[in-house]
Write a structure and sequence with these properties.
Layout: H1 24-29, E1 38-43, E2 47-52, H2 53-70
Antiparallel strand pairs: 1-2
Length: 72
């Protein structure tokens, strides 16, 4: 399957303990090392999103900014 430039997809299996391994290519791409923190977000309609630390603050700021603009 071809994906647009910069877009990737991997299939992983969930183990007996509910864990999965992030594919090596993804770990290298996002510089994920043992002990790295990641943020896992869930939406019951859209699924899961996993963000490396570098993307967390930008994403959270965007969410809170959108929430603040809805308070008006």
């Amino acid at each position: 399957m071809n994906f647009p430039k910069g877009k990737y997809a991997w299939i992983v299996k969930i183990g007996e303990k509910g864990q999965f391994v992030i594919p090596k290519e993804a770990r290298e791409m996002f510089d994920l090392q043992p002990g790295s923190d990641i943020l896992v977000l869930g939406d019951d309609k859209r699924g899961l999103a996993i963000l490396p630390r570098e993307a967390q603050s930008q994403f959270i700021s965007k969410i809170f900014g959108e929430l603040d603009s809805n308070d008006d």
